[in-house]
Write a structure and sequence with these properties.
CATH class of the largest domain in chain B: Alpha Beta
Distance between the termini of chain B: 28 Å
Structural class of chain B: alpha/beta
Largest sheet of chain A: 9 strands, mixed
Strand order of the largest sheet of chain B: 2-3-1-4-11-5
Number of domains of chain A: 3
Order of helices and strands of chain B: EHEEHEHEEEHEHEHEEHH
Helix content of chain B: 25-40%
CATH topology of the largest domain in chain A: BirA Bifunctional Protein, domain 2
Number of strands of chain A: 16
Radius of gyration of chain A: 25 Å
Largest sheet of chain B: 6 strands, mixed
CATH topology of the largest domain in chain B: D-Maltodextrin-Binding Protein, domain 2
Radius of gyration of chain B: 19 Å
Low-confidence stretches of chain A: 400-404
Strand content of chain A: 15-25%
CATH class of the largest domain in chain A: Alpha Beta
Low-confidence stretches of chain B: none
Oligomer: heterodimer
CATH architecture of the largest domain in chain A: 2-Layer Sandwich
Helix content of chain A: 40-55%
CATH superfamily of the largest domain in chain B: Periplasmic binding protein-like II
CATH architecture of the largest domain in chain B: 3-Layer(aba) Sandwich
Mean pLDDT of chain A: 89
Strand content of chain B: 25-35%
Number of helices of chain B: 8
Distance between the termini of chain A: 42 Å
CATH superfamily of the largest domain in chain A: Bira Bifunctional Protein, Domain 2
Number of domains of chain B: 2
Largest interface: A-B, 37 and 31 residues
């Protein structure tokens, strides 16, 4: 890799069409799609009384760079004429915290701020991950109630709906719960072990977590409880399940916060979009309470995320709690482009033997709200072409073939 | 069969047989389509499954990008590539380990020893933890040749029986980490298809005897 030749190659003169790693052009078609989605999102956010603002693209490394949730190696760094280290802003939350703690310090709290703009994350390798992308998001600063948490999540859901996204899921966790859960089972003083177990959860390595738990010098009941944490996900039934695992005051408090949140989300009538996962950890030490991630089908990676962060504003000398979300705009556009527009049809192909079965399946699917046609195979002149017109073809004549 | 099939990226070759056998015991019969073994995508509509046959090193890539919901991948690949996927179950199949090996009685040179390996990240992480600064020589195969021809002082490679080392006159110096195949899941599928995936994980964990509580 490090041969002379390789170095020569990387030093080679750039060709005219090349761009830095992870940078992309936005051509007119995609530009328009983005613009449309952005306008719908910002409309909904404005309707909730949030005020849009912007901050500079460049910030000091020592302030915003160090306070941000982004890993150091993902920061774009450069020097200004005076030799100060600068960063291209890696997210909007830290710059807004800086503004809230300085120029807006005397403004009327709670603050409802929103933003829309490009953020930058340096990529180490090629492979479809952009180094610049657009985030649309909100920050609710100075409201530490469950009403605040619920408002942010409900606004996220309403914004995605307004943009036209039909199918998505927001998974909610509580990092405070995880911390006091470990505290109860491992004891107060084992913070190194707590960090180790949390880091397995953060890295999504459940095998490593289980191995580490098995190796602990604990009695079986404690181990069972630690293993049980991995199962605390689903709908609101997890609140009751959690009580059999850990019962200290802080854990109960965290569960009550989630319950209260769920109750308010029901009043917003958005509860069908949320699920819970009490071992969700989206960042090692940024979020302090309720946190959430959003996913859409046909999109391999995270669509949006957010949560409550209580340490960031104090790092700018403002003693306030805040919560917010950020939507990855390009990924939202991708998810919108991939979703069905509602007039796609499923076809079921039958022969004399399978008609009864096909009819039953068709009726079931129609009950689910799908558009379904039932067709006897003898009457189709060109099967290939017939199937090409369908979003999904269920061919019962070949023993249940299934073509997308 | 109403829903979109669950897509599984399976490693081609030797591990496939073992993995398919496990899946069969868990109630997913993937061996019925074997006559089509040249095909890269196999459909199992009755079980609502789609299998993608992949090079073992590439399984993690398919799963990270979400083109496969689930995959079966060696821990060696997971360690080397550090991808954003859930590692949910140790399947315990194809056990082996990564080890440091070299010619017998050769102390490690003090100045920038050279290590030949297919696993640059695993090797450099290991030696850094040992407090050794080394130089990595990346190779793609026949790693054992490197010490014999004076290309490297040590190799870091997979050892299963130790026969290849022995036949080339090499000895094992340190064991780095044990390796087995793991069940991995795309983070979005983990949420949006949790019902089907949990069912599969539970059934597989019963087969491999892991108490996935």
């Amino acid at each position: 890799m490090d041969s002379q030749k390789e170095r020569m190659h990387s030093m080679a003169k750039r060709l005219m069409f090349e761009k830095p790693l992870g940078m992309r052009d936005t051509l007119p078609f995609f530009y328009n799609q983005k613009k449309q989605a952005r306008e719908l999102l910002t409309e909904e956010i404005s309707n909730f009384g949030y005020m849009f603002m912007d901050t500079p693209i460049l910030e000091y490394y020592e302030t915003v760079g160090e306070a941000s949730a982004t890993l150091d190696q993902q920061l774009f760094k450069l020097l200004d004429q005076q030799g100060h280290s600068l960063v291209l802003r890696p997210d909007m939350t830290a710059p807004i915290a800086r503004v809230a703690a300085s120029q807006l310090k005397r403004a009327e709290f709670p603050l409802r701020l929103a933003y829309d703009g490009p953020v930058f994350r340096a990529q180490q390798t090629e492979g479809g991950k952009p180094a610049q992308f657009e985030q649309v998001g909100t920050e609710l600063i100075g409201d530490h109630s469950s009403y605040g948490d619920a408002e942010v999540i409900a606004l996220l859901i309403r914004s995605l709906q307004r943009a036209g996204l039909q199918d998505f899921q927001i998974t909610i966790g509580h990092v405070g719960y995880v911390r006091c859960f470990f505290k109860e089972i491992l004891g107060d003083d084992d913070s190194a072990l707590t960090e180790e177990l949390m880091s397995y959860l953060y890295r999504k390595n459940h095998v490593g977590y289980q191995e580490a738990v098995k190796a602990l010098p604990l009695h079986d009941e404690a181990k069972r409880a630690l293993m049980g944490l991995l199962k605390l996900r689903g709908e609101d039934e997890v609140f009751d399940q959690s009580k059999s695992l850990a019962r200290n005051q802080e854990c109960l408090q965290a569960i009550n916060e989630l319950k209260q949140l769920y109750k308010i989300l029901k009043q917003y009538q958005v509860e069908q979009y949320v699920s819970f996962d009490l071992n969700l950890i989206s960042h090692m030490d940024y979020y302090t309470g309720i946190l959430f991630e959003g996913y859409a089908p046909n999109l391999g990676s995270l669509l949006c995320n957010g949560g409550r962060y209580d340490q960031l504003l104090p790092s700018f000398q403002l003693n306030a709690s805040a919560t917010g979300f950020a939507i990855h705009l390009e990924r939202l556009v991708e998810a919108l482009a991939k979703q069905s527009n509602g007039d796609e049809r499923i076809g079921i192909l039958v022969d004399d033997d399978t008609f009864t079965d096909g009819l039953k399946q068709a009726q079931n699917l129609r009950q689910e709200g799908k558009r379904v046609l039932l067709q006897h195979v003898d009457q189709v002149p060109d099967l290939q072409q017939f199937k090409a017109e369908l979003v999904e073809a269920i061919d019962l004549t070949t023993g249940g073939g299934h073509d997308a | 069969m109403m829903r979109k099939p669950l897509t599984i990226a399976m490693p081609k070759g030797r591990i496939f047989e073992e993995a398919a056998e496990l899946m069969k015991q868990a109630g997913y019969d993937l061996l019925s389509n074997q006559e089509e073994s040249r095909k890269l995508i196999l459909e199992f509509p009755e079980q609502n499954l789609r299998i993608m046959m992949a090079k073992p090193m590439d399984v993690v890539t398919y799963v990270e990008y979400g083109t496969a919901d689930i995959g079966i991948a060696g821990k060696d690949v997971l360690l080397e590539q550090d991808r954003d996927v859930y590692e949910v179950l140790d399947l315990g199949i194809s056990p082996c380990y990564i080890a440091v090996a070299g010619l017998p009685d050769q102390p490690l040179s003090k100045i920038a020893p050279k290590i030949a390996t297919k696993y640059p990240k695993v090797a450099s992480d290991y030696f850094r933890e040992q407090g050794e600064q080394i130089e990595i020589i990346p190779l793609n195969g026949s790693i054992e040749i490197a010490p014999l021809i004076g290309l490297a002082d040590r190799i870091v490679d997979i050892v299963s029986t130790g026969r290849t080392l022995k036949e080339n006159g090499l000895v094992e110096y340190e064991k780095i980490v044990g390796i087995t195949s793991r069940l991995i899941v795309n983070p979005v599928s983990y949420r949006l298809k949790s019902k089907e995936i949990d069912e599969m994980v539970n059934q597989l964990s019963e087969v491999v005897g892991e108490d996935y509580v």
